[in-house]
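Shipment paperwork, digital attachment
Item: protein structure file
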Amino acid sequence: MTRLRLAVVGVGHLGQEHARILAGLPEIELIGVADLNVEQAQAVARRCGTQAFPTHGPLLNLVDAAVIAAPTAQHHFIACEFLRRGIALLVEKPLAATLQEANELVELAAHHGAILQVGHIERFNPAFEELQSRPLQPKFVEAERLGPFTGRSLDIGVVLDLMIHDLDLLSALLQSPVQKLDAIGAAIFGGHEDVVNARLTFANGCVANLTASRASTRPVRRMRIWAPEGYAALNFAKRRLTLVQPSNDFRRHGLRACRPKPASQRLAKAGIFGSQLEVLELDCNRGDQLTRELRHFVECVRTRARPRVTGEDGRDAVAIAMRILEAVRAHQWEGRADGPTGPRELPAPLGPLFSSCEKRERAA
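Attachment content:
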């Protein structure tokens, strides 16, 4: 079998992992890696046994496909140059920095017959794959995607950086357009928004409450779903899925009307789970999702199959993200138009929440 010639453009925190995995796939010839940080490109190239390039230009005539993991602001320019040559692409999320740019990439890929996959990696999380295999009609969803400040992806805010994962997952689960939304957010570190909460109502009646933060003391990546079929909880970091459903007896008769005596109430409460409500805990560790995503991309390039996450999917996630950002910028913190609005114009603080002395005293 002829090996596919691939390259990775942008080998920072995530791009170098793309290069590492691709270099280990027997069906792939990693032609090179490109990065404006020449020293970084050279270091990754040495580890992966390939060649380093300061820009993507020389790779245009050398590869069958490429992965673009450069900063979001560069996605459109770099992707356009590959797509115009009909070269298959996996573009890291978000697809582009604006909806117009995302639309242009989708149209360009269609015009030149090029495979365009978007790196919404959580679609390949085994826990989410397991959830999608179940009959489920989500009607209320809560998602949290929180992490500490890392200093990466500062060219975009937390909506395009983190929340967009859950926007894509909801689109995949619901297959229904967003009917209305409201959002609030704040810029903690002085640039783009760093904390955002959004409430989305979909045309099919589902309501979703999403929170994303890159100013959290600990990382959290989870989603909880309530549906007529039962309840589902996903832990994306641990790749675990918890399912809860009413037993057949509960569906027929509901909770038994007879009240237990006070002495046995505690035992009855504990017994609800297992007898009336059935619980299934699933450990879904079936390999890391980045490798699964890359293998899927390679297979799509070889067979011309439709990617699991298409350019259209990536564009749709960007479209919802833009609507959320508009709502965040329009939020009136004091309920009036002449007051502070948007993520950077918070009301003046009344004072510190605690003093340094109090912190030291409580730590002692």
